[in-house]
Amino acid sequence: MTSESPSSGPRRRPGGRTGRIRAQVLDAVRAELAERGFDGLTLDAVAARAGVHRATVYRRWRDVGGLLADVLEATGDDDWQPRDTGSLLGDLAALNHENQAAITAQPSIAAALIAASFRSEEAARGVRRLWEDRYTRCEVIVRRAVARGELPAGTDARRLLVAATAPLYHHLVLLRTPPDPDLPEQAARTAVLAAAAGAFTAPPGR
Question: Is the CB of residue 72 less than 8 Å from the CB of residue 115?
Answer without folding.
Answer: no
